[in-house]
Fold this sequence. Notes:
By secondary structure, this protein is mainly α. The protein is built from seven helices and no strands. It has helices at 2-26, 42-48, 50-53, 57-79, 84-105, 108-125, 136-139. The longest helix has 25 residues, at 2-26. The chain is elongated and about 90 Å long.
Amino acid sequence: MKSTRKYLLAVCALAIGFAAPSMHAEEGSATPPKPKKEMRSPTERLLGLKEKLGLTDDQVAKIKKIGEDARIEIKALREKEGSPESKKDDMKKLQESIRAKVDAVLTAEQKAKLEEMKKERAEGNGPGGEKGPKDGKDGKGPKKAPTAPTE
């Protein structure tokens, strides 16, 4: 009789032990996983700004074509033989070429709006901005060593 009670008590304890975590999980107290951000190409980002810049359908089509051509050129550059330095230089030239082609599609007003948006974004990422350098206790980064005053 005593052994049956001990056995039932042990089974109940195990059942409660296994059920408790699942009940806790159903409450939703755990934070849901963050969705992964997909990297978008510069052309896709620009097309995402269609409304903000007031792009016409013709401009969108031209920018898409520039992006498709750029992907082919980038792939060819990556597969090309050569030193990493020369590939880097070629990639910079290609990026400048792409920017020039996109700028040719935009009106002066749209270019000005785009530059303003770039500046606003850069301000948020710079020193003291949202993604700027972190230091000290509140910045969650390593503390910088104090510098001696120069005279």
